[in-house]
Each structure stands twice: as C-alpha cells, then as structure tokens.
Amino acid sequence: GAGVSQTPSNKVTEKGKYVELRCDPISGHTALYWYRQSLGQGPEFLIYFQGTGAADDSGLPNDRFFAVRPEGSVSTLKIQRTERGDSAVYLCASSLFASGAGDEQFFGPGTRLTVL
Amino acid sequence: GESVGLHLPTLSVQEGDNSIINCAYSNSASDYFIWYKQESGKGPQFIIDIRSNMDKRQGQRVTVLLNKTVKHLSLQIAATQPGDSAVYFCAENPRMFSGGYNKLIFGAGTRLAVHP
Q1: Which of A35, A78, B32, B41 could cross-link with A91 by S-S, CB 3.0 to 4.6 Å?
Q2: Is the pLDDT of residue B4 over 50?
Q3: Which three-class secondary structure state does DSSP give residue A86?
Q4: What pLDDT is recorded for position A102?
C-alpha cells in the first residue's frame, strides 16, 4: 500500500514569503507528526496531531509556524515570513494509534525547504 | 536529493564484517528506544525497537543493546552489506508507556559506509 507522501519534494522561496507544506499520511493512521531536520542533525519534533487536534505543538519554534489537520487525514504545515534559518528538510510521519504499545511511526520522504 | 548527515561521524566497515553503532541518550526516564536508518533523500526507516525493561533485543541481522546505567544504546549489524550504507539514528521516547505518546527525540546520527 501507499506510504506517507509529502508535497512538494522541494520548495525554494525568498525570505519573507509564506509557504505551505503538505503531508498525506497512511490511510487510517490517526496520529500525525511533523519534524524538522537540519543538515547533519537528527529530526527535531515540531507538532503532533491525534485526529484533527494538535495534541502537542511544543516543538514549533515560534508563532510563524502553524499546522492544521482539518479532517483528521491530510495535514499542512504553514510557515509565515520565512527566514533563511527555516531552511531544512521537513518530515512528516504517521502512526496507527500513537500511544501505549510502541506504535511505529512511518516517515515520508520529506520536503526540502530552501529560503534564499 | 542532497545527503543528510554530511558532517556526521562515520563508521567504515568491510562488507561481511559486523558493525556496531553507538548512541548516548539524554533522559533517564525514557522508556522506549528505536533505531532508524536514513538513506539519502528519504525519510527515516524503522529498524528495531526496545523497551526500557529489556537490555537486549534481536531482529534479522540486527541486535539492539540497552544499558540504562550509563544511558547507552547500541545497534549491532551482522554481516554488513553495501545496502546497509546509510545514516543511523537512535531515538528515545520519554513517556511512551507511562501515559505519553510516541514523541521521539533523535540523536545526532552516525554514517555507516560499507566497502566491498
């Protein structure tokens, strides 16, 4: 079956612009996560959704970052007034339950964001 | 896509040798640990996991060892193959089995280079 997909695969934008990154999780997965991965580092947690609600957004770096999941499936990560320091690979992951029994997260290929 | 982990420590091994990748984790309360493999241009891929009530777990060609006393995790890969070449990350979950959810904290990663 299809895995987690993310679009676009690459996004180049200018400083100050607004961008949206999309994640299509595995069908039926209720939990969805966004991570950011800078070059040479491990992924860094941004936000976690259980269904439609953001259960934990403690990893969002500031109020320029926002994410939604209105129907409990597709999620969009939105970045306002982009800065060069936002350049990174943005990874999305989904899992079936998210709690209790070592629920496996499946990652998408990521969106590489470059802010010029 | 551009390689992840360009500045990561590298472990170079000969094909057929055994590989050991080490990781120090940060939170003594973490109760769940996972090893991920990440190839260039792809998202992390689950390899093996272990709960904190275990000190060893084996999979196919892989073994994870957990030493809670010194907060150390290792991944052993038997008979390393060229296809094992990738960046390997350990990840910890501070509260997976105590009412939390699968929020992962990733380590810095190690690049494994397998030479024929």
Answers
A1: A35
A2: no
A3: helix
A4: 62
